[in-house]
Amino acid sequence: MLKKIVAAAALTAAVSSPASADIKIGFVTTLTTPAAVVGRDMRDAVELALEHIGGRMGPEAVEVVYGDDEFNAQKGKQATERLLLRDDVDLVAGYIWSNVLLASAPVVLSAGKLLISANAGPAPLAGRRCHENFFNISWQNDQTPMALGELLNREAIRSLYIVAPNYVAGQNMVAGVERVFAGEVVGKDMTVWPSQRDWSAELSKIKAAGPEGVFMFYPGPAGPAFVKQYEQAGLIDAIPLFSVYTFDSISLPLFQEAGIDAVLGSKMTQFWAPDLRNDQNQKFVAAFRKKYGRYPSFYAAQSYDSMFFIKSAVEAVGGDVQDVDGMRSALRKAEFPSVRGQFRMGSNHFPVQNFYERTVVEDADGNWTTSVGPVVLEDHQDPYASQCEMGG
Amino acid sequence: MRSQLTPAHAVSALLISLCAAVPYLASALDEPFYVIVFARIMVWAIAAISLNLIMGFGGMISFGHAVYLGIGGYAVGILAFHDITSAWIQLPVAMGLCAVVALVFGVICLRTRGIYFIMITLALAQMVFFLSVSAERYGSDDGLNILWRSEFGSGIIDLEDGAVMYYTIFAALLGCLLLQWRIVVSRFGMVLRASQSNDTRVQAVGIPTYRYRLAAFVIAGVMCGLAGFLQANLERFVSPDMMNWHRSGELILMTVLGGTATLFGPLVGAVVFLLLSEILSTITIHWHLVFGPFLILVVLFARGGVMGLLGSRAARD
Amino acid sequence: MDYVLLIEQLLNGFQLGIILFLMAAGLTLVFGIMDLVNLAHGSLFMIGAFVGGTLTLATGSLMLGAVLMVPAMFAIGVLVETIALRTLYRRSHLDQVLATFGLILFFNEATRLIWGPEGLAVPLPDFLEGTVALGAGITYPLYRVVIIVIGILVALGLYLLVARTRFGMLVRAGASNRVMAGALGVNIPVLFSLVFGIGAVLAGLAGLIITPITQAAIGMGEDVLILAFVVIVIGGIGSVRGAFVAALLTGIIDTMGRSFLDVILLLFLSPNAAESAGPALSSMLIYILMAGILFFRPQGLFPPRSATAAP
């Protein structure tokens, strides 16, 4: 047994560290389970970023070691421990899911390392439990639905029905919309996540309630299934559908394949879009499409950004990643070319940025994508920033 | 059970010594990660031992056993959330709650047998699972972070110290192994084992097997609650996922893999199951493609699990 | 207005029940006759969705895909039975759980390798799109009506097969007393393969039929599997009739819970409490149902006549 363990340790060490790079970045995402479609987009974007920076940050060669959270908080925490203790990474980035990040954050932060979330933005880490070594390079969970609430007001929707999965991100999305939406919420269903894939009962209730708009939030492959059933129930032409994080470049090809024309014209809000006009974004989107043959999702955009974000800090300290204080002050400045254009880092280390209206459209080549519209919230800071007392 | 020495005994002894030596080996090899891995394995082993007590020796296949992991864990998490961090409160609450829940569940479940028993234990566990998912105050699906480990209030047992945490778990494991052995060889254990093979006959002799089975069910629940208490402290995190039916299934798998109705089978099963997943998953993300057939092969060629393969006579039949 | 919603929700529950029945029918037969706990039955549901979906996309027709899927699933079922499961019949339930769990891992990963992690979307043919008016102000999605009709037809066919044919007689004999059936000179291995093949076709059909609604995803069978186990335990193991009744009961109660529980809770609780208790209680409902039924009828609603079939 002992021999086996030593052999195993030697074997795993041999497998996971091909070259001895100067800087090792751990990147936790989902590589197995159906949610791996998201992880693949993030990983592809990180690889593209590494290509674009020539595998170097400042004077140092960089290596990214991936950890698989298996779509599970406990497993994600274990992957984080593996990266820190076995692979000896210098800092940790990634994280799609709020619950995985919440479980893993103490591991990284108590080790005194920097933690950079490339997607998850749960309220506790933006407010009461904010930390000087934690940065978010995407958005806080509440911001996008708040923008959507504002969009609903602009569209003069007076009565709204809400359908979302019953887990924390789902509850956050609903709370965000309700915080800003001025009309009446006539019905609300929180469904079992992630197993429920048939919404017949909820759709019948929506039909009976007859609202002026429906807000839904189903990330990943559940979204297309919901919209398909929404169409089959004859609702899609009758009641406009609003959503966040549901129509993206991961789900839109599935919609197109299934021929659900009705999603064309559907509106959402987001901090970024593939056709947002700035040099970095145009370069990123074009290169991503060329290399992988599909549009990047917002997960990919954030992951791409995360590498340039880290690079800016590594360069500021001349490659000495042990200088956490130096890295931190550089990260606070957020001086790097972002695919979202200009933004600044807020006091709680979450971005203060614009949120745009986005509409599902068909591009010149006949692919479905989203097109960016007017700014809905300008230089928006999340509502938890005031609760954050940064002290460590 | 007290037969001559077999390879199974040797492996068991080796495993125990290995568990004792891991912190030293890990620091010598500069692989601190494996300390956490083995701490985790030992916690699962305690849970598997508790399941083996009713499943292996009592024939009660519980498909909801992880619920006690969750209850034990949430007792720590919720009390810590309300700033009650004393282990002298947390531990009795965790084990007491598990005892009460196991008693209630046992009264309902023990009316049934076979697959019906399996499914009703699942059903009851699912109810607690959904309860924890909807507890918004305590993080619902996201679970609860535990900022401070349980405090024993003495200088000796300070769980914040990694080595103390490790050896606390190790001591608990030894204690549970010992308790399991004492129970199995006692009159109580004999009635339990006899009721598994022929309940009617044992009842005919005038022994109220129901009470014995219920008592075993409660003891197993409390022991698993201890595992939950340790897991919450080790991970500093609890979530509904701890009592997901997948976890209950994994507990069954570990026990069967190691060898049901053997004293060391659950420990061996936990080591093989978790270490193999750990190793395979770092080699390829498609590791299930190898792990799945491995489980089938164990069933086909290693009757009575790994312990059976090693010639433990206690395993099976 | 209210009764329209009520009837629609009944139909929704009925349709969920039909899917559960297709899953449970094979499961209960395999369990009842072969005494095999087959966790991999959920994998057959998933494989049916992916194989049938691929055939649908290749032929451009859902009907053709479904027709071609039947022999394919039958072959897969017989193959799985012969290669992996046949040796397990004489083993304990625990060994069967371990081995068939291994099969789940294998099938999930194999599916990911073949079809990729994103799953498969199967479009509905145009003539099945949209809603139909059922009178009295009720409009209902046409495809869900089709599912209900297909399910009832399959249930009827299965009933005739089991109740009226020689094959069915053997199956019933096997379900109530395996040893006796063997003594009567029945070719047990062939009977088992046939039953397993039929179970695989039914599970595959359930998977394919639901795919235009939910899409095919890896692991889609596992949650349905647990529900199907709930159904066969409520119905009584080995009883197709029991599976049918229990499936409809489970489907309707689950749907009714999701539809009306929050309204009912409002009568007793504050809006806030009702809002948080509603989803929890409605997810628990079928488990409460099962625990309740087993408490009063420990062998389910329609227990097999002979006790020897029960483990």
List its salient traits.
heterotrimer, A: 392 residues, alpha/beta, Rossmann fold, 2 domains, 6-stranded mixed beta sheet, 14 strands, globular, C: 311 residues, mainly alpha, 2% strand, disordered C terminus
Q: What is the alpha-carbon Rg of chain B in Å?
A: 19 Å
Task: Please report the number of helical segments of chain B.
Answer: 13
Any idea what the CATH architecture of chain B is?
Answer: Orthogonal Bundle
Which CATH first-tier class of chain B would you pick? Answer: Mainly Alpha
Q: Biggest interface pair, residues each?
A: B-C, 41 and 47 residues
Write a brief structural summary.
The complex is a heterotrimer of chains A (392), B (317) and C (311). Chain A has 392 residues and is of the alpha/beta class.
Question: Could you describe the 3D structure shown?
Answer:
The complex is a heterotrimer of chains A (392), B (317) and C (311). Chain A has two domains: 19-139 and 278-349, Response regulator (Rossmann fold), CATH 3.40.50.2300; 143-270 and 355-380, Response regulator (Rossmann fold, 3-Layer(aba) Sandwich), CATH 3.40.50.2300. In chain A, helix 7 (168-180) links the parallel strand 7 and strand 8. Chain A has 13 helices and 14 strands. Chain A has 392 residues and is α/β, with parallel strands linked by helices. Chain B has 317 residues and is an all-alpha fold. Chain B has a single domain (7-309), classed as Orthogonal Bundle (ABC transporter involved in vitamin B12 uptake, BtuC), CATH 1.10.3470. Chain B is 71% helix and 1% strand. The model of chain B has no long low-confidence stretch (mean pLDDT 90). Chain C has one domain (2-219). The radius of gyration of chain C is 20 Å and the shape is globular.
